[in-house]
Amino acid sequence: MKRKLLTAGLAAGFHLLSAPAQAQTEIFIGPQVGFTRASAGVNYSVLSNYDGPPSDPIYTAHAGAMMRLDFGGNLSLQPSLLFVRKGYRVKTLEAQYDSRNGARYTSDRRFGINFLELPVNLVFSPDYSPELQIFAGPYLAIPLGGTVTHSQTFYDSQTNDITTEEQGSQQLSKGSATPTHPFGSGMASTDMGLQAGFGFLLGRLQLQLSASAGFSPIIQRHGAALNTTADPELGLRTVQLSGAYLFKLK
Question: Which residues form the signal peptide (predicted)?
């Protein structure tokens, strides 16, 4: 049901974009850049013995182009096409016991996925403050590829001395629904969700702060890592601070 609503919202946005422009419609376009705080939210309903936070955030950047269609009133339509990197970090600061070799270890894994993202937001500007923008809408993102980097430090269970340090990286495989890596190595083919936020229009400069939540699980963590037969689903979350410099086309 959520996917159908998101698809309908995107279709409505494209319909507005393709509709003949009326006399009062103004079109603006320009570059958009900003910073992204990305994390992952876990679907706890599939878990029986896991109640901790699934991840820590990572901090990245995004860039692309924005278009704004002003319809002559309080509403405007704002689609963007962005290159954005999302992901999350899983780390254990306290040494955990590994039953396979009797050692204790700490680990740090960083997941990063590059997306081509299309958000389509409906923007409302009140009469009392036309420079204020309040917006919301769906987004669709296509993963272009990703990596997971990891480091592990093993300790002697008796002396607590460091015995081994390991580092490495691997590619995330696109379209895989059953990852082989204990913390997930497969990506879904699309990421869909909702975005909302507010901003200010200062002449040609547009500044916005937004938050988004993905409804489609982009990565699944393997149940064996959590001693459960279920596969908890991870949906991506972002907070973005963006700036765009817009030029009037019409």
Answer: 1-23
